[in-house]
Task: structure prediction
Amino acid sequence: MKLTCFIPNSQKQQVEATAASLRLSSLVHQVYVLNPGSDSVEGFNSLHVDCCSSTSAIKAIASRPDADYTLVYTKDVALQMGAFAIERMVQVAADSGAGMVYADHYKIVGGNRKSHPLIAYQKGSLRDDFDFGSVLVFKTTLLKEAAAKMTVDYDFAGLYDLRLKISQIAPIVHVNEYLYTEVENDNRKSGEKQFDYVDPKNRAVQIEMEQACTEHLKAIGAYLKPTFKPIAFDKGDFKFEASVIIPVRDRAKTIGDAIRSVFSQKTNFAFNLIVVDNYSTDGTSEIIDELDEKRLIHLYPEAKDLGIGGCWNAGVFHPDCGKFAVQLDSDDIYSDENTLQKIVDAFYEQQCAMVVGTYKLTDFDLQTLPPGIIDHKEWTPENGRNNALRINGLGAPRAFYTPLLRKIRVPNTSYGEDYALGLQFSREYQIGRIYDVLYLCRRWEGNSDAALDVSKVNANNLYKDRLRTWEVEARIRFNQQQK
Result:
């Protein structure tokens, strides 16, 4: 078996080092340097395209190889392949019938080598920022077949569209072995990276990614048309129109601000606050008790094995929970005194079962942090529930029609429980949107997702991919039942 390699052009020394590492394998047949300029790189085959972002680049790459397998390296830093790593990736590809394989690897961060494990690809791995690493090996015949299916000319979504097309015809396989070493050139914390996809400067990229994902969902039978089940807000007899629910554990520094934010709200309806105290030990419980407010329910759940989702269930099933259950995290505050009124009004005006607002990232002193306002404009009435399978979050604050939330219930986790609800609600019901800033999301060192290590990031991403997989499968069955 033979293999053709494609590497991006950068500094001559890096190109030569990467090529030398690749050529240690006897399988390597040709090495192309991807060079968007007009000058060729001495000693190498040259292909005058960018590195994989555009459809034209992907098609040009796919047109060149005559070897059995094709390797594409996507970074412009020197690559060091491990001993017989290429042979291993090709072997796994051949044994598994994969269209594409990718592998765990090492990263050089600040001069130190660190392990960088990845997660398995599944049907719900639809995020356009899914981490495959930088070394991708394709079965050439399937690469060419997938590239031929790419009918939309993207500037940014080329590689994303390719791997979606690959997944439609063959498995994408994760080799959970450490097979190469690369230099890491993005050393931001996880809490800084997670908002890249909603940064306004990336909007043009996101529009293309949405289009590619939507076409993929249509191809696999998981696309949902913009038709929704009507909803009437006549279920149950509620004492309160709305309840704000705050799950909390050990947030003595922030819980007082959150509670005061709720009771500063001005509304034309009755509301209350249910604080579900998950057995705090740092003085949080005492702070809650000191706040003299008749509309405050300080609830200790009976179960002691609850995550945030389980605490939400405890609040939602409380007999004094209102018709609409509205989210506020114990770290955060509402932006002004009109938030709750706007949310409840949106339910009736938009005839929706769930409402998602807009928030602003701030520090603890309420100074804006980049990228600032997170409005999730990718959640449109026409295509939001399809695009939700690509993005990694749905925005905040979130609010739900309580009778439906009691029927669906919240997963007992402390990560992704809100995303799971958004996917399931949107399968049949419209999700309402408010683009005014309703919520200040305060980022501080104690935030649970400010700086996660790779194992925690992987666990979180694996769970959300699993949620997406279940939802994709449910939507395929849903569409089949409608025929």
